[in-house]
Structures are given as C-alpha cells and as structure tokens.
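yo, Translesion error-prone DNA polymerase V autoproteolytic subunit is done. seq:
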Amino acid sequence: MPAGFPVSPARSVSPASAAPRAPSASGVRVACPLLLARVAAGFPSPADDYLDRPLDIAEHLIRHPEATFFLRAQGQSMIGAGIHDGDLLVVDRAVEPVHNKVAIVAVDGELTVKRLHLRAGRVVLLPENPDYEPLDVTGRDDVHVWGVVTYVVHAL
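structure:
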C-alpha cells in the first residue's frame, strides 16, 4: 500500500457503536428455508418440491464475524457500484484494502464509501457516479481505511 495511507488496525477504531455485529448480541439467529432448486434468470425451469437445510444468511455474508460490521449507505456517490442510499453494507476489516476494492474510509474523521485507486504511489478515492469528483488523499495523515465492503443488501 502506498505510504501515507494507513490501514486502521482492527482494535484501534471500534465500529461496534456504529452498527451491530453478527451474530447479534442476543445470539438470535434467523434461519429461513433454502430451496434446493435454482431459479432461472432466463427461461423458466421446473421447480423442485423439496427444501435444503435452513439457511442462515449470516453464514453467506460474514466470513470473519469478529471483524465484520454493518453500515447504512447515505447518498448517491456509489450508485454505479450498486450501492444506493439506505443500502446495508457488510464491511469486513479482515479483508485487505487493495486497488479497486470498495472500502469504508475515514477522511478527517468522516466516513465515506469509495473505490480505492492505488497506483503509482497515489491514493485516490473514486466515486461511482459522474456527478461526484474523485478525492486524492495521497500523503494525508487523517485518512484511515475502516474495512472493505464485501456485500450490499438493498430492496428492489
């Protein structure tokens, strides 16, 4: 990673106050039925009449429970990446924030979600909406990556 772009250690900034962790503090797990059949996104296919085991969605969205937190997106700067206002972001602090990853970044104490552009010693936070400008943060001391966005959950 280019110099001047520190990655916050998992213990230095606690996102626990910003969003709940999974599984919840109450230990309640939500298990919904998972159909064995796959749904055709093209032509319809016959449905199977049986179920697989119950599905715990956290098993699919969370790889590192101790390093994962959730945030709600606000604004329109990342619509090109499929992140809309109000979407739930699954953020993993154990995933390395490398070039082209979408990350949660603290800039001067304010959180933002942007695509990381790390090339030729430069660090640029790229929006995914042409109405917004890229933010070059090369060499700034007030910039810290909180984690990498691994999933986005939004209503259709």
